[in-house]
Amino acid sequence: MPELPEVETVRRGLAELLPGREFRVVRVLESPKSFPNACEQVEQFLIDSKVGDVRRRAKVLIIDLSTGYSLVVHLKMTGQLVFRGEESFGAGHPTDSLIGELPDRSTRVEFEFIDGSKLFFNDQRKFGWVKLVPMAEVEMMPFFQKVGPEPLEPETTATDFTERVRRRNGTMIKPAILDQTVIAGVGNIYADEALWAAKIHPETRVRYVSDERLNTLFNEIRKVLELSIEKGGSTDRNYVDAEGRKGSYLSFANVFRRENQPCHRHPDELIQKLKVAGRGTHICLVCQPKMEGE
DNA sequence: CACTTGACCTGTCCGC
DNA sequence: TGCGGACAGGTCAAGT
């Protein structure tokens, strides 16, 4: 699913498209799964409100409304938030969108604005959700209470990261950086990419990774997330941005989805795919030798 | 408590 | 072609 760079790309798109628009109709097509607290009052409540800021925390989008409420959206594995302007309906088709006519069979919620434009929440696997929450209560949601620091915020330091990772000294480094309470926003793609860049085998126990290497890992996490945002994120299957376009990071990837292809540092070595803590994992065994000492 | 595993869903791909 | 099983980018609850 969308990890930090994908969610940030969607946020940037929506921040250009949504502010100032006023809701006219909300259609919830998959309740309670996709919109657990949807009901007539909630839908009525959305109507008459205008979109304000569009924010992101970790992999979660927060769309503030003029009523003092926020729409909180988690895309999980296959969620999409796709905006269609009035001009997209009828004659003209959205320019380079990968998505066809909307709604389609994965559409779970449809928001219509008074100018005729629409925002679609699509989600094939139904793991994602939308919730309407009073703005002041957003930060009190359980996930936000325990989520770790934002890796790209300048005030987040490598020392913060190292201290938090050390709380997971007994586990392997890959699940440790996937843990959202350690650092926010890293998912399976960027975990593999950052571990390759920092030359750490994903199964290495945290206690065997030196502070210096954790420092490097933090810097590599930042670099890979920033590069991916620049490329509009990774499209493996479902991910599209707010206008339905694919991201291009995967054509720059070093390991993710590159099994049996040459390592970019060691052309004679092929990228291996293995399973670590239940997740598909991609490594170069020369760059990332299994550590001794267990 | 720290850690690991399975469940939540639908769709696709691969091997027999 | 048909069918079963594995797998897919995230998180949580339950298990050890």
Describe this protein with a few key phrases.
294 residues; alpha+beta; four-stranded antiparallel beta sheet; 10 strands; 24% helix; globular; DNA-binding
Mean residue pLDDT: 94
Helix content: 10-25%
Strand order of the largest sheet: 1-6-7-5
Q: Characterize the largest beta sheet: strand count, sense, and whether it forms a barrel.
A: 4 strands, antiparallel
Secondary-structure element string: HEHEEEEEEEHHHHHEE
The Cα radius of gyration reads: 20 Å
Query: What is the number of E strands?
Result: 10
Overall shape: it is globular
Question: Could you outline the blueprint of secondary structure elements for this entry?
Answer:
Blueprint: H1 4-17, E1 23-28, H2 40-46, E2 51-57, E3 60-65, E4 69-74, E5 79-84, E6 107-113, E7 118-123, E8 129-134, H3 142-146, H4 158-166, H5 173-178, H6 188-197, H7 211-230, E9 272-276, E10 279-283
Antiparallel strand pairs: 1-6, 2-3, 3-4, 4-8, 5-7, 6-7, 9-10
The chain binds a DNA duplex (16 and 16 nucleotides) through residues 1-3, 6, 33, 59, 74-78, 106, 123-128, 143, 167-168, 170-171, 175, 178, 180, 187-190, 234, 236-239, 256, 277-280.
